[in-house]
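[User]
Protein folding is very new to me. Any chance you could explain this protein sequence and its structure tokens? I have pasted everything here:
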Amino acid sequence: MFKIDHRSIADVEPFEHIPGADGLALGSAAKLASGALAKAGATDMPTHIIMGVKDERGEYPAVRVLKSTIFDTTSSATVASTLVGSSVTLHTDALGVTATTTSGVFTITETDGANSVKGYFNV
């Protein structure tokens, strides 16, 4: 799950309410596809993070992904301190990252040397 850790700027991104595919999970990375949110793939650059459940209008509350927002998430593999500054791919569930650097979209700024990481999307 991508959780906002902090922002580099004082402004807070407002929630946007956007139609989307069924089953998008809270805290997942999503992209716009034909005007609707869809789960982001491993090397897709997400445009939004899902912030709640789909409402009766078929819309999800979501925040736009900005480079100034630092997210806290987990990795499906150990992220060594040598990967700080490297960009990694998204996990297949779009709720975290991997330790794979080829075509990475999420830059690691901090790691516990195991599975907890912080970073930002390369938008």
The first strand starts at residue 3 and ends at 7. The chain has no helices and ten strands.
